[in-house]
Write a structure and sequence with these properties.
The protein has 109 residues and is α+β, with helices and mostly antiparallel strands. It has one domain: Glutaredoxin. The protein has five helices and four strands; from the N terminus they run βαβααββαα. A four-stranded mixed sheet has the order 2-1-3-4.
Length: 109
């Protein structure tokens, strides 16, 4: 199954890599997973069809077969749990890594 993520057709950060799809792309690249990117305009993000993928009309959305996810942290956690190498195997180290992942997505950012 092909993974597809959504991204801005024209990024408001002007290509500085701050858009939230970048963290998902990075995780997929680190996990060695192929993916496709669907580029959308701001107008397309607000359409009912897209809101079935992302209820807030934002990016990214993640599609893999019947699985649809939104929110970059949830997507990254899914990728990390599904593909080896992104999270430690030891339960305590894994919990700490997940804690830091959420800190990076919220507190630090």
């Amino acid at each position: 199954m092909t993974i597809t993520i959504t991204a801005f057709k024209q990024s408001p950060d002007r290509g500085r890599g701050l858009a939230r799809d970048m963290r998902v792309r990075w995780a997929l690249e680190e996990a060695g997973q192929p993916y496709e990117v669907r580029l959308l305009s701001f107008e397309q993000l607000k359409q009912p069809a897209y809101r079935t993928l992302h209820p807030f009309g934002q990016i990214p959305a993640y599609q893999e077969g019947d699985l649809i996810l939104f929110e970059s942290g949830a997507i990254i956690l899914h990728i990390a749990e599904r593909h080896g190498g992104l999270l430690p195997l030891d339960a305590i180290a894994r919990a700490r890594a997940i804690s830091w992942m959420f800190a990076a997505l919220n507190t630090v950012e």
